[in-house]
Design goal:
This protein is of the alpha+beta class. 17% of the residues lie in helices and 22% in strands. The strands form four sheets. The chain has a five-stranded antiparallel β-sheet with strand order 7-6-8-9-10, covered by helices on one side. A three-stranded antiparallel β-sheet has the order 2-1-3, with no helix packed on it. The protein has a two-stranded antiparallel sheet with strand order 4-5. A hairpin with a 6-residue loop joins strand 4 and strand 5. Helix 2 packs across helix 3.
C-alpha cells in the first residue's frame, strides 16, 4: 500500500491561520524511551509512514529520528471486512460490495410467534443497534433475558445442537446472583454513572452496587450453555453463537422471546423490578398520577419520592413499584 504523500513536502504551518478545536489524547514517553522505538507500531496489519521536520517542512523519512524535534507517524490499517459480512452473504442476504467510502449496517428482522402476542426480534450488525429509536424497543429485554438464561441453568436446553465437528468443552456457569460486569446509575448523593468489571464472578455488593437506590443498566454473566456462554444484557442482548442459515434466526428469535417471557430471574434478581426506567412521556404522567393518589390518601403510606428539576435535566422518572415510588 503506497502513501499518497511519497516524495512530497508538506507545506509549513502558517501562524496566521486560525486553528480549530481538536480532540486530543496525549501520552508522555518514559525518560529512558527513545522515539525510534515507536517503529514497533508497524506490524502485519498496520503500515507506518514517517515524516520529519528538519527546517523545511515535513518530509518523508525512512524512520523516526531521535535528533529531530517534530516528527509525524501516520499509521494506516489494512482494511479487513467484519466477519459477519461474508457469513450473511453466504445466507443469501443482498449486501453491497465492501467500500472504503461508506460503512455498512444490517438489520435482520424476524417475527416470533412463540408467545400469545407476536413479537419482532431485530438482529443488528455493524453498529445498527445504536440507531434504533428507544421508544420502539423493549428496553428491559437484554437484562431480563440474560438473567433468565443464567438463573434457569440446566432447566432449559440450548437453542440448538452444537454443530458437528465443533470442539466440545465443559462449560461451568457462574454462581447465582454473581456477575462479571455491571453498569448502572448511582442515584443517591451525587448522581452519576458507574461501570465495574471483575476478573471473576462477584456479588454486586463487591462491585459497590446498591440494590436499594442504584438503577441497573446492564450486566454480564457466564452461563453453562455452550451456545450462550458469556451473555451481556442491557437494552440489547449480546452473545456469541453458531448460525448455519437464515432459518436459524427464526429458531433463535423464538428462543429469545421465550427467555424474555420467563420469570426465573425473580428468585435472586426480583429487586430490579423496584426501579424501572420510563421511556415515554405518557408513562411518566401515569407515575405522577400514582404519586398524587398515594400521597393524598388518609393512611399516609410510606413513599420514597425524589423529583429533580425536569426542565434542567430533561429526564423521565421511573415506574412506580408496588411498595415504593422513586425517581
Amino acid at each position: 500500500m503506497e502513501s499518497e504523500l511519497v516524495g512530497e513536502v508538506l507545506p509549513p504551518t502558517s501562524s496566521e491561520k486560525i486553528g480549530a478545536d481538536l480532540p486530543l489524547s496525549v501520552l508522555l514517553l518514559a525518560p529512558d524511551a527513545e522515539v525510534s522505538e515507536l517503529q514497533a507500531l508497524a506490524d502485519k496489519d498496520h503500515v507506518l509512514d514517517w515524516y520529519c521536520d528538519r527546517g523545511a517542512g515535513l518530509v518523508e523519512s525512512a524512520e523516526l529520528a531521535n535528533d529531530v524535534d517534530v516528527q509525524v507517524a501516520v499509521r494506516r490499517s489494512r482494511k479487513r471486512p467484519p466477519t459477519w459480512r461474508p457469513l450473511l452473504r453466504q445466507f443469501g442476504l443482498p449486501l453491497p460490495a465492501d467500500s472504503a467510502d461508506e460503512s455498512l449496517a444490517v438489520l435482520v428482522v424476524v417475527r416470533s410467534t412463540v408467545t400469545q402476542q407476536n413479537r419482532w426480534v431485530v438482529y443488528c450488525f455493524g453498529g445498527a443497534s445504536r440507531s434504533m429509536p428507544t421508544d420502539l424497543l423493549d428496553t428491559r429485554f437484554g437484562v431480563v433475558a440474560a438473567l433468565n438464561r443464567h438463573a434457569v441453568g440446566d432447566g432449559v436446553d440450548s437453542w440448538r445442537e452444537v454443530p458437528v465437528g465443533v470442539r466440545r468443552r465443559r462449560v461451568v456457569g457462574d454462581p447465582t446472583a454473581r456477575v462479571r460486569r455491571v453498569s448502572g446509575e448511582v442515584r443517591d448523593v451525587f448522581r452519576h454513572r458507574m461501570d465495574a468489571r471483575a476478573d471473576s464472578a462477584s456479588p454486586l455488593q463487591g462491585l459497590r452496587f446498591d440494590k436499594v437506590s442504584d438503577l441497573l443498566r446492564s450486566l454480564s454473566v457466564r452461563t453453562n450453555d455452550e451456545l450462550m456462554r458469556d451473555v451481556e444484557g442491557g437494552r440489547t442482548l449480546r452473545f456469541t453463537t453458531y448460525l448455519d442459515s437464515l432459518d436459524d434466526f427464526v429458531v433463535l428469535a423464538d428462543y429469545l422471546v421465550d427467555l424474555r417471557d420467563r420469570t426465573d430471574y425473580k428468585a435472586d434478581w426480583g429487586w430490579i423490578d423496584q426501579i424501572v426506567p420510563v421511556e415515554t412521556r405518557a408513562e411518566a404522567d401515569r407515575v405522577l398520577r400514582e404519586v398524587v393518589c398515594r400521597i393524598g390518601t388518609s393512611d399516609e403510606p410510606a413513599v420514597d419520592l425524589v423529583l429533580p428539576d425536569w426542565a434542567a435535566q430533561n429526564e423521565h422518572p421511573v415506574e412506580a413499584a408496588p411498595d415504593r415510588v422513586a425517581r
